[in-house]
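Chapter summary example.
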Amino acid sequence: MSTIENRCRFADNHAAIISHTKAWVDKVIVRMNICPFAKAEVQAQTIHYLVIPPARFNNYLDRLWDACQQLDKDSSIATTLLIFSDPEMDFDQYLDLLTCAQQQLANDNYEGTYQLASFHPDYCFDEQATQDAANFTNRAPYPTLHLIREADITKALSNFLRPEMIPERNIEYTRRKGVVQMQSLLDSCYDTPTAE
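The structure predicted for these 196 residues follows.
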């Protein structure tokens, strides 16, 4: 079953979407060490998963504001994944949303406080071939905005030797794995049982 078929199949099942996203965090982000800082947050259970149903962009930005406010007030949450369930949100629409979201952070005086990382099932870096396995460093089961405290990033990077090498290492690693294996791994996330 294709990615878009899976996205359509689970579009209304928020519990399944969260299970699939957690599986992706575990299988790709943590086990493949795409983000060296993620494992500690997974183990501490400090990641908040928020599924956002189809809506207008303004509603999406309102939810981003709400997520920022929640991080302001709740120090037990280290980071939030805003997961968009709309199966019709293609990569170009997602990039438009990302641009608006980044502008919204600046407008709300959150620039320097929170940072966004971006993920989409069809993510493709500028000037990269669609079938380049390196794109899988930013491919997730569903369109996702990762809202991160900038202070936490700064702290994590200060304890990491040569953090500037992380993206390069990830590109080399995923290319060694190849497109077929990376796509298979992403597809397997949709088979994850829904948590009770």
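To summarize the output: The radius of gyration is 16 Å.
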